[in-house]
Amino acid sequence: MAAGRAFYAASKLANLLTARRLARLAEEEGRGWTIFAFCPGQVPGTGLVRDYPAPMRLGWWLAGTLAVAPFVARLMGVNTARAAAAALTGQAQDDVRPPPGRLYAAVRRGKITWPDLSELARRDDVAVAMCASAKCWWACRTPRAG
């Protein structure tokens, strides 16, 4: 169970580091792209807790069953799949634009938010190490001269 959570957290960090780099490349190359990392928040029914102990899986199942009603989901601090999809769709359709300097979109209680990145996600040395270990040529390359 702990290994699964660690891999999940590492994948989220990689998403944020990649979004930071892509945003920087887009800006350096004068592209009009909007780059952001998206977190749907806690969405019961996704299978995220499949390796958890039975009592925790039961609690998550119950949360998902009760959270079908949007107001209950907000009270419980979870999101319905519909609310998370609507937030992402709004961004894809340009209905929702990130505030200047923000690239992490997170759905919290059914609403889109733009939280600060963690210290680790803001560190360039971590991004460089990730690129070197993953051989992400596209993320580590030097931008083309203007």
Q: What report would you give on this structure?
A:
By secondary structure, this protein is mainly α. It has helices at 2-28, 54-66, 70-76, 81-92, 124-134, 137-140, and strands spanning 37-39, 104-108, 111-113. It has a 3-stranded mixed β-sheet. The longest helix has 27 residues, at 2-28.
Task: Note the main sheet.
Answer: 3 strands, mixed
Strand content: 5-15%
Binned, the helix content reads: 40-55%
Order of helices and strands: HEHHHEEHH
Rg, nearest Å: 18 Å
Question: What structural class should be given to the helix and strand makeup?
Answer: mainly alpha
- Sequence of strands across the biggest β-sheet: 1-2-3
* H/I helix tally: 6
On the 0 to 100 scale, the average pLDDT is: 78
Shape: flat
Q: Total number of β-strand segments?
A: 3
For the termini, the CA-CA separation is 48 Å
The low-confidence runs, each spanning 5 or more residues with pLDDT under 50, are: 142-146
Search tags:
146 residues; 6 helices; disordered C terminus; three-stranded mixed sheet; mainly alpha
What's the gist of this structure?
This protein is mainly alpha-helical and 146 residues long. Helix content is 51%, strand content 8%. The chain has 6 helices and 3 strands; from the N terminus they run αβαααββαα.
Please outline the helices and strands:
Blueprint: H1 2-28, E1 37-39, H2 54-66, H3 70-76, H4 81-92, E2 104-108, E3 111-113, H5 124-134, H6 137-140
Parallel strand pairs: 1-2
Antiparallel strand pairs: 2-3
Helix pairs in contact: 1-5
